[in-house]
Amino acid sequence: MNYLRTAIVALAMAGALAGCTTNTAPGPTAETVSPPPLIPRDVLFGNPRRYQGRLSPDATKMSFRAPVDGVMNLWVGERGDFNSASPITNDTGRGIPSHFWALDSQHVLYTQDQNGDENWHLYSVDLQSGETLDLSPFEGVQANMIGQSEQHPGVVVVGMNDRDPRWHDVYKVSLSDGERTLLAENPGYGQFFIDNDLNVRLAMKTQPDGSGDILQKTADGWQTWFNIPAQDMLTTNIVGFDEANEGVYMLDSRNRDKAALVHLMLGEDTPTVIASSEKVDISNVLVNPLTHEPFAYALDHIRPVWYATDDDYAPVIKEFNAQLSGGSQVLAQSLDNQFWTVYTDDSDSSPVYKVFNTDTGELDKLFVTQPEINNLKMTKMQGVVIPSRDGLELVSYLSIPLEADPDQDGDPSTTSPLVMLVHGGPWARDSYGFNSTAQWLTNRGYSVLQVNYRSSTGFGKDFVNAGNKEWARAIHNDIIDAKNWAVEQGITTADEVAIMGGSYGGYATLVGLTFTPKAFSCGVDIVGPSNLVTLLESIPPYWESFRQVFYNAIGNPETEEGLALMKERSPITHVDKIQRPLLIAQGANDPRVKQAESDQIVEAMKARDIPVSYVLYPDEGHGFQKPENNLSFFAVAESFLGNCLGGRVQPVGDDFEGSSIDIVHGLDYLPEISEKIQASM
C-alpha cells in the first residue's frame, strides 16, 4: 500500500459496537450443506482475462481490453485470432475504461479521465501508424462523443466545454491530425442531435419547469419544434435520424406511460408508433447501420427478450432469442449488419462476449471474460416481483448462498444474513446477470436482495416519477418493504440485514441508518451524498441542463420550501440517530459526490462519539477503477460485514499491495484490518 493514516479513537467507544457482534447461525436442518470454498477476492474483483470485446465495422478485426503489466489496455487482432492480438495502448495508471471503433475501421477511439475527475478526453489510435492522438487536448475540459457517419470516414463529431464549462460546443474533429471545425456554439442547450450527414439539426433546451424544448435549426435560427413535459424527461429521447434525414426515431412516453418506439417527421406533431409494451419501456433498439431504420428492440422485465419490428428480421431475432438464457446486450454491429458483438451473462457463470451472424443465425463465442470463474461454485440469481405497501410492483433480484438454498430455486432450507444491495442513480436499474458483488456476498454466506425501487428506469414514467420528492420517504419504504418481504419468505431474519450501495445506493445506506436506525444491522456507504443541499451546490458545471431534474426530484434550494425539504431529507440532519456500525468509502476526486459529502458526516459522527470507519482513495473518483483499490476496499468491507453479520472472511493477504487506501478514521472498529496493518509495520 502507498500509505495508511489512522485517527486516534478512544477504546471505550468500542462498546458502542455491541450491536454488531456475530449473530448465532440458524440451527441445523434435516440436511446440513457445507458452504463452498472461499472464492478469492482477486478472482471476482481483479482484472478480467479480457473484457469489452468489439468487432470492427468491417468485421475483419476485433478489439478488447486486457491487462498489460496488470493495467487494462486496448488490444487489437484479426477477428477470432487471439494469437494475432497485441496491445495498442500502454497505459500504466488506472487503465483504459472504455473504447469503440471509428467507422473507417482504421482507428480505435477511447475515453479516459485523470484519477476519476470525469474530465474525459477522447483519444484516437491509428492502427496503421500506431500513433495515439488526443482529440480534445485541453486541460480541465470534458469531451463527449456525439456521433459519426459512414458517409464521412475519418472524422467524428465531439462536444467540448472549453469555451464555457457549463456547455459543450459542437466540433467536427479529424482523426488523422485532430484538427477541429466548429459546427455549433452552444448558447445554453443540454444536447445536440446531428443527422446522418453530420449536420447539427436539433437541440434540447431545459425549461425552468423541468420540461425540455426540442429545437430545430432553420435558416432563421433555432425554432421550437415540440416540448417534452417534465414528467417525460427521463423516459423520452431521440434515437436518431431516418435515412432521408427528414424525421427521427424516438423512445417516447408522451401521452402514455411506457416509452414506445416511434417515428416522427420533422416539423410534425403526431408520431407513428412502431412498437410499444404495457409492461415495460422499449429498450436497446437495434438500428440498421446503413438504412438507419430500427429493426429490433428489447423488453426487459425480469430478463431481456428481443423482438423484431421488421418482418424480414423476425426469423433472425427468433434464432437469436433461442440461443440466449440470461442477460444480453448488442454492443456493436458491422456496417453491413451481418455481425453483431453481443455481451451475454448468465448469473452463475462468467460473462461471455459472442458474435451473432445474422446470415447463418449462429451465436458463437468470442471470449470468456473470467474463465477461472467457471470452475467455481456460483449462486443463481432469481427474478422476483415484490409488492410495495402502496401497490407498486418492485422488480427485484435475489441471490441466496448455496448452503442455504442447495437447489438454487429461491426457496431456502434455512435463513441466512441478508445484504440489501442498493443500485445508484436513482435513475438506473438492476438487471439480471452476473454480478461480482452479489457472488462475493453469497460466497461469504449472505443472501443478497437488489430491489428496483421507485425512480428506477425501465418501468414507465409513472414509476420513475413516483420517486419525486420521495427521497428518504417512499423510495426508502420500498427498500424496507423488500427487506420485510425477505423476512416473511424465510430468507433472513429481521435482525440480520445490512444495507450497502454506491452513489444513490450510498445515500440510501445513510438514510437507512439515520431515518430507520434499528432496521439494519450495519451499513456500507460508497460515494454516497450525506447532505442534499451541498450535493446540489457542488454538482459539475456541465450538469447545468440537468439541474432542474434534480430540483423536481429532490427539491429546489432556491425556494424556502425546497430548501427545507432538502435539509429534512439529508442524512446529515439526522446523524445523531445512528445506532449501527457504518463504513464509508470515498474517492477524493469525485466530481459528482465530492469528498466533502463523506467528510462532513464523518466529522459529525466523531463530534458525537458515534463509531464510523472511513476509507479514502486519493486517486479515485465516483467509484473505484484500479483493481488494487477495489481489492483493498472489498477486503475492508468483508471484514466489516463479518464483524456485523458473522459471514466468512478471507484473510487480507496482500490485498492492500499497490493500493492508495487511506483509512482516515475508525481503524479500531476494523480489528482484522488493524491487526494486518500492525503486523506489516
Can you give the mean pLDDT? 93
CATH superfamily of the largest domain: Alpha/Beta hydrolase fold, catalytic domain
Question: In CATH's first tier, which class of the largest domain applies?
Answer: Alpha Beta
The amount of beta strand, in percent, is 25-35%
Largest sheet composition: 9 strands, mixed
When the domains are counted, the total is 3
Task: List the strand order in the largest sheet.
Answer: 28-29-31-30-32-33-34-35-36
- Under CATH, the topology of the largest domain can be stated as Rossmann fold
Per CATH, the architecture of the largest domain is 3-Layer(aba) Sandwich
User: Structural class, please?
Assistant: alpha+beta
Helix tally equals 12
Distance between the termini: 12 Å
Please tally the β strands and state the result. Answer: 36
What is the molecular shape? globular
Helix content: 10-25%
Uncertain parts: 1-30
Assembly category = single chain
- Radius of gyration equals 25 Å
Domain Peptidase S9 prolyl oligopeptidase catalytic: 434-647
GO molecular function, one term: serine-type endopeptidase activity
Signal peptide: 1-18
Protein name: Peptidase S9
Could you please describe the fold and organization of this structure?
With 681 residues, the protein is an alpha+beta fold. It folds into three domains: 11-44 and 374-531 and 570-680, Rossmann fold (3-Layer(aba) Sandwich); 50-188, Neuraminidase (6 Propeller), CATH 2.120.10; 277-369. Helix content is 17%, strand content 31%. The chain is built from twelve helices and 36 strands. Strands 28-29-31-30-32-33-34-35-36 form a nine-stranded mixed beta sheet, with helices on both faces. The protein has a four-stranded antiparallel beta sheet with strand order 1-2-3-4, with no helix packed on it. The protein starts with 40 loop residues before the first helix and ends with a helix. Residues 434-647 form the Peptidase S9 prolyl oligopeptidase catalytic domain. Keywords: Hydrolase, Signal. Pfam families: Peptidase_S9. One of its GO terms (biological process) is proteolysis. It comes from Alteromonas halophila.
